[in-house]
Amino acid sequence: xxxxxxxxxxxxxxxxxxxxxxxxxxxxxxxxxxxxxxxxxxxxxxxxxxxxxxxxxxxxxxxxxxxxxxxxxxxxxxxxxxxxxxxxxxxxxxxxxxxxxxxxxxxxxxxxxxxxxxxxxxxxxxxxxxxxxxxxxxxxxxxxxxxxxxxxxxxxxxxxxxxxxxxxxxxxxxxxxxxxxxxxxxxxxxxxxxxxxxxxxxxxxxxxxxxxxxxxxxxxxxxxxxxxxxxxxxxxxxxx
Length: 240
Hints:
Blueprint: H1 3-27, E1 37-46, E2 55-65, E3 72-74, E4 81-85, E5 88-93, E6 96-100, E7 106-107, E8 113-114, E9 120-121, E10 138-140, E11 145-148, E12 151-155, E13 158-161, E14 167-169, E15 174-177, E16 181-183, E17 187-191, E18 193-195, H2 201-239
Antiparallel strand pairs: 1-2, 3-18, 4-17, 5-6, 5-9, 5-13, 6-15, 7-8, 10-11, 11-12, 13-16, 14-15
Helix pairs in contact: 1-2
């Protein structure tokens, strides 16, 4: 395969991956706390030899997580929390600790504050948050302090990744970071609210159309290149 073929295949591969990312964003328009993703492309230039033109290819090298604030929706539930500003909740999952913006929590039968999947919400010290099952009134201050029947219990942990570019999506709304976390300084938390998905549906649908058209053009080029090579081989065979 010549350079044009390699370049086209690389582009088509990247466009296919971007289509998957965009489709996943659109599928999670209504998912609480969902963070939209974008694909990062990089150009790689390789020398092919002296007095020969270089080969340039664009490849998808990673994904970026949008930090845009989603709209806040009032629910009135005591264990629905929403973050204003930067930061994530820290939860304990079977695979280890993870960050999330999805603040729909519940209190289980023993008083632990957990996600709907049963993952523990952690406080500022990295310990599970416990609210006595018999507590009638539960309040959350903007600084994250949880009180039960007027008695302060603990502070909800708000964290930031050490390196946002290393965030990896573990599941729909949770992320891991290899370099670890640090406390979030410019964030507050609201009780009785949930943060909606930050996906912009109009922009994502428009991008899907652009990617689809770009993929079709690339496929047309590959078909034309294949026909050109076939015609050349057929003509060369007839002359020989």
